[in-house]
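User: I'm preparing a small set of examples for a lab meeting where we compare how different chains pack in three dimensions. I only have the primary sequence for this one, and I'd like the structure in token form so I can line it up with the others. Please keep the answer compact; I'll paste it straight into my notes.
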Amino acid sequence: VQLQASGGGLVQAGGSLRLSCAASGRTFSSNAMGWFRQAPGKEREFVSIISSNGDSTIYQDSVKGRFTISRDNAKNTIYLQMNSLKPEDTAVYYCAASLYSSAYHYRATAFDSWGQGTQVTVSS
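Assistant: Understood. Below is the structure token output for the 124-residue chain.
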């Protein structure tokens, strides 16, 4: 599956952004989808995942209550609504397609397709 992420940008602390990830190729609705991020000088880290039918989601502790992942299988698109952004959220954000339909496999090794990344910069 090919993934195209968009929606990043520069925002002040406390602001909001919504990332989108459009998928094409194999059957989108069969796969859990996730978001990861990588800050400068740090390893890529898990942010959130949503199951194939959207009924299950998991978040990294640092974004719980601020970020919301969702998907529209009719549009082959997932979203990440990011509110109350903090400078420590600054990173390149990547969407990824899982090998599984369940949201419970959220290690990076469970994902076999990755988007190109979109830069999110939060200023203090």
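A couple of notes for your slides: DSSP finds no helices and eleven strands in the chain. Residues 19 and 98 are 18 Å apart (CA to CA).

User: Perfect, thanks.
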